[in-house]
Amino acid sequence: MCQLLGMNCRLPATIDFSLEGFQARGGLTDEHKDGWGIAFFEEHGCRIFLDHQPAAHSPLLTAIRAQQIKSRNVIAHIRKATYGEVTLRNCHPFKRELWGQSWIFSHNGDLHNFHPVLTGRFTPEGETDSERAFCFIMERMAAAFPKATRDNPPALDDLYSLWQTLADEIAAFGVFNVMLSNGDILFTHCSTNLAYVERSYPFTQVTLIDSDVSLDLNAHNSREDRMVVIATKPLTRNEHWIICEAGESLVFKDGLPLLGSHLHAKKLLAA
Amino acid sequence: MCQLLGMNCRLPATIDFSLEGFQARGGLTDEHKDGWGIAFFEEHGCRIFLDHQPAAHSPLLTAIRAQQIKSRNVIAHIRKATYGEVTLRNCHPFKRELWGQSWIFSHNGDLHNFHPVLTGRFTPEGETDSERAFCFIMERMAAAFPKATRDNPPALDDLYSLWQTLADEIAAFGVFNVMLSNGDILFTHCSTNLAYVERSYPFTQVTLIDSDVSLDLNAHNSREDRMVVIATKPLTRNEHWIICEAGESLVFKDGLPLLGSHLHAKKLLAA
Question: What InterPro entries has UniProt attached to this entry (chains A, B) (predicted)?
């Protein structure tokens, strides 16, 4: 099993504070010591950093954190190998290009006997069930919107609807807690463990669960900032984390949850 | 314009010494200060590190060098922007997946009015002529060998023949000094500037041109090691660098040049 960390923001922000707690889980406060990866969508580009060494003791991760990279969408992953070699090609997040955009994918859980027929347009490089699921999703998205381009993307409602269908279809094969982003939107699906917290002005002081460190978010954000942090398990002790429901698919944009089945139900109840 | 650095080895080796001279050209001994990138093929995986800051002053590049990553194929690039924003999505090397393998591409030179019709399977994320050329190559390779897989790749002769055709076709649009690798083989094409040096047992002491540093290659390599280092311009002063000819396409494998038109001509002369 693995742990996931994601962030979706209105304006570029650093994820460093959350990453500190997350890094500790990579071999220090938790057992996820078989590699880590983090993808940053920065202005007009995407970078992935991968390592098969434990996150907690990685000089590379420390160097990256020191850069204080600002990003609107981040997906990070620490791994505890259940099967499959501890090797780079099995490290999440995975990346593929579709419609002239980078798509980034990360998965927590196991799928059993998930061997979809793939056309060859997107082919796994490694052996993980996760990368197979990602290639399957990319193929189905490409097939559903054959004329889409970066400048003429599918309507968000249509894409979200397809995401729900695909996530449900794959989740039938096992545990499928996932994040998928193209740098603009961030999709999630929860089978068992996923939680998120919304942050906006006025920001508060928050304290990490995994190390005794506090941060005054007010000092690091402006009135215009707004963000959602998503993780396998809550990272801070004094914030209102929302625990995702089993089977719930969400989409985050501009630092807000949108269109989720859960939210949709809430809206219907409120109406 | 930009500078390229590549390495193709029989056994995994570090490129750190060559990288030291190359890093100096990224804003210290030369003017290539608009970002850098390096791709390492490691056992069963590929990592790219990208930065839009000058290589010479990059803490990230220093941290990467400290890791002493061992690799059989490396492609690195430092950029002096001639047109196109200094932004991450325009940083080389570029990466795409084909046949379940990572393919890495880097280009030095400018292409004029190169706007091939692309089917959409491989679409540029940035604005560079380089990434357009890469997508064009990937599409043509995919189309030429539709049944190829990682376990059943095209014959090297056939792939090299296609590489020559494609490189000639693209080079007609301008200057096309390039490197392309799938982690096993490394293709090059030279329009104006490209040179390589072969290293094998017994290794010698070599001295960098760009900084007054020497290295005894014997201390760092064994009898079984064999490698080729390829660069825009020779990196060391006391080795036999072979300057590529204009229009020459080469392929390197296991630390040796193979099948090159130049070598082929030499072989014919010798026969």
Answer: EgtC-like (IPR026869), GATase_2_dom (IPR017932), Ntn_hydrolases_N (IPR029055)
pLDDT computed for residue B263 by the predictor? 55
Distance of CA B261 to the CA centre of its chain: 18
All domains of chain A in start order, with CATH: 2-270 (3.60.20.10)
Q: B196: buried, middle or exposed (CB in 10 Å: 19+, 13-18, 0-12)?
A: buried
pLDDT average, residue stretch A69-90? 81
With beta carbons less than 8 A apart as the criterion, state whether A80 and A32 touch. Answer: yes
Pairwise CA distance, residues B38 & A238, whole Å: 41
Interface of B with A in 57-96 (CB under 8 A): 59-60, 63-64, 66-67, 85, 87-91, 96
Quote helix, strand, coil % in chain B, to nearest 5: 25, 35, 40
Of A47, A96, A146, the CB nearest to B97: A96
Cβ separation of A123 and B100 shorter than 8 Å? Answer: yes
Torsion sign, CA atoms A140, A146, A147, A149: positive
3-state secondary structure of A210: coil
Q: B159 by DSSP, 3-state: which?
A: helix
A91 counts as catalytic: no
pLDDT at A114: 97
In order of A7, A163, A208, A236, B45, the CA distances from A230 in angstroms are 6, 18, 14, 11, 28
What number is the ipTM of this complex? Answer: 0.89
- Rounded CA-CA distance B35/A233 in Å is 37
Phi, psi (degrees; rounded to nearest 5) at B264: -60, -45
Phi first, then psi, for residue B4 (nearest 5°) are -115, 150
pLDDT of B26 higher than 70 = no
CA distance B207 to B209: 7
Q: Which residue has the tokens 């490189």?
A: B167
pLDDT digits 0-9 by tens, B197-256: 999 999 888 888 877 777 788 778 889 999 999 999 998 988 999 999 999 999 999 999
Q: What is the pLDDT of residues A163-219, one digit of tens each?
A: 999 999 999 999 999 999 999 999 999 999 999 999 999 988 888 887 777 778 877
Contact between residue A4 and residue A76 where contact means Cβ atoms under 8 Å apart: yes
Confidence of residue B35 (pLDDT cuts 50, 70, 90): confident
Question: Chain B partners of A59 at a C-beta cutoff of 8 Å?
Answer: 63, 66-67
Q: How far is A125 from chain B, CA to nearest CA, in Å? A: 5
- Show the tokens assigned to A191: 């089978």
- Helix or strand run (H / E) with residue B269: helix B261-270
Active-site pick, B2, B9, B91, B135: B2
- Count the Cβ atoms, other than its own, within 10 Å of residue B99: 20
| Contact: B88, A43; criterion CB under 8 Å | yes
